Amino acid sequence: MSTNESSEAGCRPDVRPSNNTCSQKELSVTASVISMTVGIFSNSLALFILVKSYSRVRIKSRVSFLLFASSLVVTDLLGHIINGSLVLFVYSSHKRWETFDPQRVVCNLFGVCMVFFGLSPLFLGCAMAVERCIGVTRPIFHSTVLAPHHMKMLLALTWLLAALVSMLPVLLWRPYRVQSSRSFCFFHMEEPKDWLDVFLPLMFSMLGLVALLLSIACNTLTSCALLQGRLRRKLRCKGTSYHIEMICQLLAIMLVSCACWGPLLITVIILSTRTKDENASLSLLMVVRMATWNQILDPWVYILLRRAVLRKIFMLLQHCWGSKSHKLHHWQCSVLRSSVETSNSGASPSNCLCHRRFPLPDTAIKSIT
Question: The G-protein coupled receptors family 1 profile domain covers which part of the protein (predicted)?
């Protein structure tokens, strides 16, 4: 901690500045401002698209999905605004927590916001995956038993659970601590005093990992059910398109959450169950920065993986494949024409099918007649 204080003092005008320390501080502030700006813009754009889709859709399953998706984007947007403002305040105060936060009020608020806006997207993604799994595998139960107010209650429960977990350290008199980097507050994982200091970060990580694993399981079942229904032609084209769009978005959200939050959750478990490590603060800061990218990438899932965009991609791929199929069609016709010219008998039923699929040229028709 004394090293950080001296490094901060090195950036003040009354002491000769250290170019390396000051440049790192400016780089951190610039990265925080860019991340906050991009996150607010991305989530605002995604929220506009989701609200516009929500006002036009009339399918019940689609309405439930858009409700959870809009709530996820709103949560990410608030997380960028609140956490980003706290980070900028800490950097503007030169990380002097003892000066501007002697009662640890800001630190506790920072820790509560980090845990709440971290667990909420994981819980919401899990709830979306469970809802879609029930809607696809048990459509009758979903349409008759699960009413819209049940979805709203589930949404409220996810937020309530995340808020309860984030408030537990304050309620149990285990306040959040300033980390070694002095740029954020989190659980007390360095030299824990008793079992509560170990239990709280473990509970945070285990709940996040359970949400991720449940999302993976439900999305896998949903994808298999959609593929099976597509092969058996039990789903109508319109319903299938909605399902395919939703499952693409769910799979993308799951991959983003695993890539961004997986390292943080595993690192917290490792740090809370072993002795203090010299590189612990650096590794924790790196995985926290990786987790913040989850709130930036989530909205782009809804911006890019929409039906209109997916349809254009499909048409582009179909156009590219069309040139190959066109050559294949000419090749099959030439083979068929040569076989007809060498045959003196009438066409069999199988050949008639080929005639319908590949129209014969006039010379081939004359040779048959």
Answer: 42-302
